[in-house]
Amino acid sequence: MSSLTAYHRNALLYASAVLLGVAPAAAQSTDSIPETRPDTAARPAALVGGLVTIGSLEEDRLRLDQLLGKRSSDGYLIRSPSTVTPRLDDRSGALRWQILAPELHTVWNSAIPFSLNDGSMWAGKGGNARIMAGIRAAYGPVVLTLAPQVSVHQNPDFLTVPYPLADRSAFAYPWHRGPESLDLPLRFGDEPFTTLDLGQSSLSVDAGPVAIGAATENLWWGPGIRSAIAMSNNAPGIPHAFLRTSKPVRTAIGELEGRWIVGSLQESRYFDFDPGNDSRSISALAATLRLRFDPDLTLGFARAVYAPADSRIPLAAAFDVLRSAGGPNTASATDTTRRPGPDQVFSLFGRWIFPESGFEAYAEWARFEQPSSLRDLLASPNHSQGYTLGLQWAKPLASSSAIRLQTEVTYLEPSSTFRERGLVSSYTSRRVLQGYTHGGQVIGASIGPGASSQWIATDYLRPSWQVGLFGGRVRWDNAAFYTSAPFRHPRAHDVSLLAGARGGYRFGRVDVSAELTTAKRYNYLFQSPSGSFADDSRYALDVRNQTLTLMVSPVGTLR
Q1: 28, 462 in Cβ contact below 8 A?
Q2: CATH code, domain carrying 316
Q3: CA separation (Å) from 108 to 44, 366, 550?
Q4: d(CA 483, CA 492)
Q5: Cα separation of 292 and 310, whole Å?
Q6: pTM for the whole thing?
Q7: What is the C-alpha separation between 356 and 9, in angstroms, rounded?
Q8: Less Cβ crowding at N or C end of the chain, within 10 Å?
Q9: Is 230 domain-assigned?
Q10: Positions in the chain whose pLDDT score sits under 70
Q11: Which residues span the domain enclosing 407?
């Protein structure tokens, strides 16, 4: 990391605009909602192209196409950019290559950080920008995508709660400091900084029905639109080796797809001062089944096991996902011991699409503590659980337009069993100091540990543009409220209410999307000495924050 001057930031943004100018300026004209799902047929390679990245406008259209029955949902619930981006043509023996036009993602926050599913870019206060560009090539069964990312962060000063002990950075997460903890800095230092990583890069070799390789790209496992409990793009992509299906495997009960990874999780610079524990291993497995009797119903599961590791390339941990992660994370309410070893996240999920009605329902249920026995699971199945429930509906209208409604609820707060078994917060761990994080950000749901959220949105969609409104609520780390918050009045919960507008436009083969959010965060970091609901700084610290997000991304294949 290094600081970046205003000159360099402006130069970077200017270069992005120039490079993106390779796309035609005229808006695309079509007579239907754009279909972006890559097909299996070969297509001619073009000089300039783009990746279908997680969270992009093109990926949003892909899900809409599935909802309306225009595209298959193969692989969608365990996806990554390399698996949903249209393939280069596969002429045997010929080298195919393509320049990846830059993708630009910026987030500006007026008062405090608000960073949800931003990957390697931590969206703190002020301006933040990430740019990705590169090249991809294919030769026979070998496919290479080299798509590094540079992120710049203005990072001006804002109010935080310093970590109170001397064993960690002052910017470390002040809650969950023992016996369970996690690496989740409130601020990434006190200066502007820049990061460079391999981003959405991958190398794979097709071997019939499976592919093997290595990647640093983001993964999204599960059906959620806003939240994925086991694996999301909220943190930087995990450097990992993988084995995955390259196409659905037909079985007697349906089409099976899967992905198995082993990778390395890294500690942030703002956790502890022990260089010997900076690396951890992660072994994870996800699989989905599209049922034969109803191909629009997909069921799946995911499990990730993470543990301390001595090596930055922990290949020996590959089979950890098939092993027990040991005893429960919390033995009792009075247990303060820390037992080094593996920990886990496990989830079951499903998605049911009704294309004739333009409707889908989906759910994910997770458990963060491994049960000690079948009896334990049957007695307290809700202990350390979390879940996401969601609905989406779209209706085509005249003139190739459509309207869409979305709603999603995620709940990761402590279960009622904490009264007799000790409180367990999602993504924290007594066995792994840094918890379920990578680079100082949670790997799963972006709302973070012990939180819950509700979200609703509506959009009007046209072939080349869309516009919508949304609203939501987040209650931040309610587990910390019960364990270590400075004030525990009944009305001192840290809660955000938010509303905003969003839209997107396709300029030729470039998508431009924007989102403006206004939010009020009540009792910011639990700062409410009186427990009053009064809208007055004498009683509570309430913070108003505006967030402006802009994303410019090339679509599929540019010509």
Answers
A1: no
A2: 2.40.160
A3: 39, 32, 9
A4: 13
A5: 44
A6: 0.88
A7: 48
A8: C
A9: yes
A10: 1-46, 90-93, 327-339, 419, 422-423, 485-490, 529-540, 557-559
A11: 6-448
